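Q: Predict the assembly, please.
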Amino acid sequence: MMPPLTHGGTQRDGAAVREVLSFAAVGCHGREWWTPAFALAGFGVPGRLASSALLFLLAVATARAQPATQDLASEFAGRVAAAIASGAAVHLVCTGDDGRAQLELGRSLVARGIRLVESGEGATTVRCSCLENLREYACIADIGDGAARRVVAATRAKNSGGPAVPSPIVALQLRPLHAQHDPILDVATAGPALLVLTPATVTRIPLPGQPAVAPQSAAVSTARVWPRDLRGHLRADGDAFQVFLPGVTCRGSSTPFALACADEGEPWPIGIENAGMAASRNTFATPEGFSFYEAAPLDGGQWLVVDQQGMLTFLDAQRRVVARGDASDHVAALRSACAPGSYVVTARRSPDAESADVLRLARVAGATLVPEASTIALPGVLTALWSARMPTRPQDDREAVAVVHDMQTGRYEAFHLSLSCAR
Amino acid sequence: MRRFISVCLALASVGLATRVVQGARPRYGGTLRVEVEATIRSLDPAAATSDVAEAAARARVVGLVFEPLVTIDEHGLKPLLATSWESDPRGARWQIRLRSGVQLHDGSTLEAWHVASALRVSEPAWTIAVESGAVVISPREPLPDLPWLLADVRHAVVVRGSDGAFAGTGPFRIESREPGRLSLRAHDAYWNGRPFVDAIRIEMGRPAAAQLSDLESGHADVVAASALDARRITQRGLHIAASRPVDAIAVVFEPHRAMDTALAWRRTLSAAVNRASMSAVLLQRLAEPADALVPRWLSGYAPLFAFDRGPTLSRAAIAALPLDQRELTLRVDASDSLAHAIADRIAVDAREIGFTLKVQAPLGLAPRPDARLVRVRAPNTSPDRALAVLIERIANRDGGTVQATLPPGATLDAVYQAERQLLERSVVVPIVHLPDIYGFSDRVSTWNHTAVSESGAWNFADVWLRGGAP
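A: Predicted assembly structure:
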């Protein structure tokens, strides 16, 4: 008999995503139109004029495959950057687009400490092109000359038969969990109750639909003096839960409600190896000593962290810095079975103190963030963003808890943050 | 300037194409009169022919009558008679499920054994079986990209009757064959919708000039045209539709001019050809200048070949060359007037830098040329297969100076490197890529789609005729 088959799925093989095994199909009524874009792509003149081709590519991609082609450009840039030694001088000559590939590449190369130079003399010439063929969207770079010449390509398969599985339209979904005037550090669901962590207490509040009982509170007993920017994290597993505070760890249970704390630091369960948050500090450090505020675990054992300069920073599997991105105050990873790949939500404090923060959703492509359309304006300033796993959700789903301080009303509000998909 | 040319070229293409697309509510009926220059001797998709023109014409006609399991459009592979396909990870064993309820031209229903029988004829080396209503294919060697191969017209499903008649599943069935004429009739039960026209009459062996004349005088509805005729057709108020560039025109140097010591000499000649001007002026912006052999829309990497053509000879160095290196002969197919015009243009460009290039279009025996201008058709397929086929077709004509091998399903970087390796010796020098161009009478309209697809395939099932008869 036939070995196990993949059904309508994709198979990742390095940069290339190839649909190789199985395809389902329906009718063929939707045959192609001759579009102006096709004319542009089909009859442009090579060289600089091939720009029309990528205009076509981008135009069509925007309509039907935007994530795939955006991913491709980003991944391509990462691959080219990885093929060039750090510190090298590079003369970049790209064609087949209107500077997009060159821009992406240039940025990625500079981020790796590579110098871009105007002239090819004494420099490694990188020639690149981003177009498409019938099989795939393709970016290809020809690096160097002579014997040292190398070719790097990144491709994305087109629909290879059958009804195309539409790309999910991914959106951020924000669900209010709890609001109060006392500062909230984190919330978590533990059994039939919501636990709310404040600087002084853990409060147990029955979830909607549960028997109405009065909230119960337990004090966080510690001899520590909290830092000004106190951060705390709750992690629940069934009825049991743990509280992580700088230099303090508490263990408790939801039913019966109990809490016991000790002034000792432990690694925090934030998806990356760390020694916990030191007392009177608000940062974590990797075993290698790299300090960061928040971390989002990504596919492939990598991480995106907010470093001490407030920059989004990609760490590889060995927790080495591989790339830096934009400024951000917060980052958390989101995942949903309906949207393959790594997604992160980021937020940056508005320069205008009165303005509300905005959550931005991005897809991770190599060492680049590809913005998704969905942004959410918060009712205030985001004070905490923690990964969370909701008990009712599949194991692989990764969600988050966001805590917002509404400056106008003085309230703190906790939200559950997740991805939703529409096709 | 180059940008201007590109935009003009694009606009021209769109304008020409959209005129054929537009139309009111379509009408059923009438006979579409088509003329082709080649004579199609066999409609068997699996039959081999060395006649390039016949092969091209047959591929178009076969596509109206017979259908493969899958097809290829700009979105990639699409199912046609198959609904799904799956394989083991190596591509050594493929299971293909078929569309149900497809009626053949003889009124019977397409079944898996029909498909298996047809594929056994086109691919005798494959092991093909029927299991649980599905066709199971085990190629002699694993083929991870077998669906791309199955999309080739050679693998169209033909049901061969005991009387020698062919039945297919396409929108038209063969009604009659006479010398020089092929008549097709609409397949009323076509699974994808009955064609609008009742019949297609294809006149074969019509010279290009006669076709043009028939179109202008209203005796033909669809004729093959060349880029040289485009202006004339549109000036008469008739329509033109073009495919994407499908033919590669290239200069291939003969073995005695293909030595490594003559590399700079060949590069100099290659660099002398003003491809942009040739495409814009001579070929009426209906061609694409070529730096690579595989057209850009099939390769996805062609612009990279515009860089680094390598060192060339200066004018002084050319002037200092021995006479036998400053004079060369370029052979063209005597029956290909467009190729002749391109060769003449190359001769002008070569003369400008100090070479004397004679164009030779022999009808019989002739002195050995230094290079040939070849015209090879790129198949509508994945880049690896497109390059492999182009190389094979060139090799068949040049007698062995051109060689390259590519494994099936080769990655794009491997394809690019193979083509770069092929072209960096400048033994094969791409000049332009040409589309298939057709002239249409003013009674031809199409519904939803163009009459000629991007790959050049005839989409005559969507054609309808204004004014009814003939």
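Chain B has three domains: 1-42+53-65+170-238+441-470, 67-161, 243-435. DSSP finds 14 helices and 21 strands in chain B.
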